[in-house]
Amino acid sequence: MTGSDKVRILAIESSCDETAAAVVVNGREVLSNVISTQIPIHTLYGGVVPEIASRKHIERVNQVVKEALKEANTTLDEIDAIGVTYGPGLVGALLVGLSAAKAIAWAKDIPLVGVHHIEGHICANYIEDIHLEPPFMCLVVSGGHTHLVNVADYGKYEILGRTRDDAAGEAFDKVARAIGLGYPGGPKVEVKAKEGNPHAIKFPVAKVDDGVYDFSFSGLKSAVLNYINGAQMKGETINEADIAASFQQAVIDALVGNAMKAIDEYGTTKFAIAGGVASNKTLSAALEKACQEKGVEFYHPAPILCTDNAAMIGAAAYYEYINGRRDGWDLNAIPNLVLGER
Ligand code: KG4
Ligand code: ZN
Fold first, then answer.
1. Do residues 288 and 310 both lie within one domain?
2. pTM of the predicted structure, to 2 decimals
3. Which ligand gives the minimal distance to the CA of 181?
4. Domain of 315?
5. Pairwise CA distance, residues 2 & 5, whole Å
6. DSSP per residue over 28-69, as a string?
7. How far apart are CA 219 and CA 326, in angstroms?
8. Tens of pLDDT, residues 235-257
9. Ligand 1 site, CB within 6 A
């Protein structure tokens, strides 16, 4: 123990294609946030290759932890607990970060705190705005998840809606590939969309009849692919910018529509966004405007806290830690871990 009343957590994240470590004090003060991305390697294959991801995490994890400690001007003796993502994610990738976390916690005889990856994304908002406190509603939009969550209290989550098929980021990545923009698609679609007309093509967004706040993006993705195939068969040239802008608008309409419905129903006064897709400025501006019209406070993390990072895991681990969560050496990676479940 450091002997101070401050809790200093070393956090590790390795659920997908970023190897990350951070040192966070009391869940809100980030002393370091080191991210080693594998994007250039996976770009060669057009998407994340799980086996390669695991191997690269093994190569990078020790160095990334060392860098995070050095940047934070901290030694392991000053660390009170280790926070680590244990799901959801790629099992091999998760196991690397989890094993590193267990080894350090065991060697230093300090607590191990397992964190849900989506809880981490949500908690990025606590770092961005040190005054934000629950309850609030959060839209988590990433490459693997699209969740509308009621954050009732620290560590207490109620899932109001989720995607039935593709995640929002996944749809961005697939559409980017179809119009030849490459991986990772989200940021590239956003740039391309700036040159296009968001109302040029009317792409349908499926409504989910039996789940008021659920999302579905696979129909939209198919509509874009059909549009491109149809144009090619007729020998027509396609306008990539109009496709990107119209697709992005359809995603935004679906996300904003469900979010506003939920805000009305639950009488929400604070609304936050999180996850990789939350760094999309057009989406964030649309949500901010819609929130302002309802007098709802809007929160969104900086892009570095939207993407996968370990500072957000450190924030989530802190609130789990002060709630008394301690994990044993039997903590396992759970690829399909559900938010709010242990
Ligand atoms: O949260 P994240 O870094 O990793 C996961 O937990 O999945 O999210 C990555 C996803 C990718 O699908 C990427 O294309 C998307 O976020 N993304 C974006 C933008 N930046 C990243 N999507 C739309 N617009 C962006 N600017
Ligand atoms: Zn993520």
1. no
2. 0.96
3. 1
4. 8-124+306-322
5. 8
6. TEEEEEEEEE-HHHHHTTTS--HHHHHHHHHHHHHHHHHHHH
7. 42
8. 999 999 999 999 999 999 999 99
9. 16, 142-144, 169, 172-173, 184-187, 190, 275-277, 279-280, 307-308
